[in-house]
Write a structure and sequence with these properties.
Largest sheet: 7 strands, parallel
Strand content: 5-15%
Distance between the termini: 22 Å
CATH class of the largest domain: Alpha Beta
Bound molecules: adenosine-5'-diphosphate, zinc ion
Shape: globular
Radius of gyration: 29 Å
Strand order of the largest sheet: 3-4-2-5-6-1-7
Number of domains: 5
Number of strands: 17
CATH topology of the largest domain: Rossmann fold
Amino acid sequence: MLTDHTSDNPAVREVLRRYWGYDTLRPLQGEAIQAELDRHDSLVVLPTGGGKSLCYQIPAILAQRTDVVISPLISLMKDQVDGLRACGYPAAALHSGMTAAEQKQTEREALAGRYRLLFAAPERLQNPWFGGMLEHLGVGAFAIDEAHCISHWGHDFRPEYRQLAALRARFPQASLHAYTATATQRVRDDIVAQLRLREPVLLVGRFDRPNLVYRVVPKQDVYVQTAAVLQRHAGQAAIVYCLSRTDTEVMAEFLRSQKVRAAHYHAGMEAASRRATQDDFAAERIDVVVATVAFGMGIDRSDVRCVIHAAVPKSIEHYQQETGRAGRDGLEAECVLFYSYGDIARWEGLIEKSATEANAPAKVVEAGRELLRHLQRLCNGYGCRHRAISEYFGQTYESPSCGACDACLGEIEGLADATVAAQKVLSCVARVEQRFGVGHVVEVLVGAKTARIRELGHDRLSTHGLLKDLDKKVVQDMVYQLVDAGVLGRTTDEYPILKLNAASWEVLRGKRTVKLRQAAAAVKTAQVEQDAWAGVDRPLFERLRALRQQVARELNLPPFMILHDAALRDLARFRPTTLEGLRQVGGFGQRKLARFGRRFADGIRAYCKTQGVAGDLPNSVAFRTKARKRGNAAHVKAADPRRQAFELYAGGATAEQVATQTGRARSTAWQYLENFVGDHRPGDVSRWVDAATYARVTEALRASDGTALRPVFEQLGGQVPYEVIRVVARHLEVTALGDAAPTGM
Ligand code: ADP
Ligand code: ZN
């Protein structure tokens, strides 16, 4: 996924390695770094997780100068400074949360030129003493993080950011570099104008996040549905977004009753308890934060594996921003949005209410509604979600299928006989004389016998109990889907009533068909999810995670600042047992290697010994370098297909991929896999054999007493091919006879 954009500047590469232990730059980072090195104004728009911070971190250290970073939140500044210091990078922040003595001390160090980056809030620039200090230091470049906060049109307007307009006049010689993840043209133009950027280099990245798997699911029982999704991410970091403060509290309570380590978060809480929840999350003491949109910018945890919207967000921008907090480490993450028309109606009410309160003109309400309608279209669509989001932001999406959304995975299930079901609903609306709302119509349809229904005589209607086999929530969702599709009307007053419209009559007369969605029974595994775990020794990964936790506690840092999950997974893939091996795997800069590299290497060595598995497997970075040196992959193929196959398997390739890339038959690729398993003893083989098949084959092998595989094949009803049986047999042989049962997903 990473492409090399570094090649023309070896000094950048050197710094990247030394401080962060990374090998390659991400798209546009090279260009953004160059703009800062040249001190040419720039506006850099990269999605969340795109790696904006490196763009201003590298130039300052490379040019040995002190640059200033403007950041909107103290917690953000603190996290960045802590993270940089853990890498041995000299940085500091000046903010109002520090004591006078701390501030004085930091200023002294800054004046002595000890820091490469100095973080400050926009208000501080008004302070003459601070301005004087920057002049004295000869600060030549300002990086403005979260630059969209300057714009009214953004989703995070902060009045303090307006003061940045004075920067240009105050420091006419300095270059200004704005960074944001917000995609809209209006906000971009606003940033350029407000900051008075001079012919800025404009760098706009791709908004698509290929590592996110999107799902939109009809909302029925959102508590149960949310818990079910979280079960797929047990022990992993997740965020659940709710619409109201009360909702967050109720949801968190429910999740705790399901043994999920969850806490709520909203703007109505005291600052101290908000901070406590953030800290608990960062330190991995809790896994799930249930929050309103107030939980956002301050989250630096890069390993969020799941973002759930228990209620629809306000716009696609908000959706992009909120789901953007998932998978910032570039690894797979799942985003599930529970959709209901009811929530759209709730938002409409809120938009109107806040507009009335603020005395805003009618066009503000209309603009809000328009954003909501785009979101509604995204949710109701049956097409690729990645494409829809990219196109919304004005970018084309080339691939016909993303392989990472519910539509492309073929999970969207239509209700059988949707038109007939729709007719039942519509005729019930007709029978109650178009005088009732959703709740009542649903009750009649499912055949409820409440006092009110009996009083009205609605239990004697022919439509009473027409859908009695369905759950009330399902019927309610169906009704809302019909409203969404425009084949059923709903008044907009305080107590909305269902009304038939022209389209309704077409459906009733059989002149129009209707599509209705069901909540999918089963979700599939996307390729990105498989790839991200390919070749990872899961038990080892879990142990390394525990080790990271321990080191983090000792150093009083959150675990993600010790090592990212991506690095941890690579360690669990290649099992390096030496410092040099760790360095090659990536994620260890010099400082981290010196501070705790030894412990990780020793931990891996001990694991290899007790589990009887090989360490120091050839890693794919080394392989890539080798392949490049030799000219091309075809040449490698001629050289030694078996060796190439081993390297590919170590990098997590499937047998099919190995067959294609080595140009050998499928059966030979499987033969190589068997040899690979024998020689390298991977902790688990779930990459090639799923957990259920592995268990079945193991059982059949244990039940057989001979060495012949035929009886085993037959006992499995001929459903498992010989080559798979051989791989499992080999694996059982080389691991301590079944102790290493795969922990696949
Ligand atoms: P953004 O601010 O754009 O949301 P960050 O700067 O926080 O993104 O970077 C997201 C994550 O990606 C961080 O954990 C960072 O260390 C990592 N990262 C950034 N650039 C690279 C790179 N070139 N190679 C590997 N990881 C990177
Ligand atoms: Zn798709």
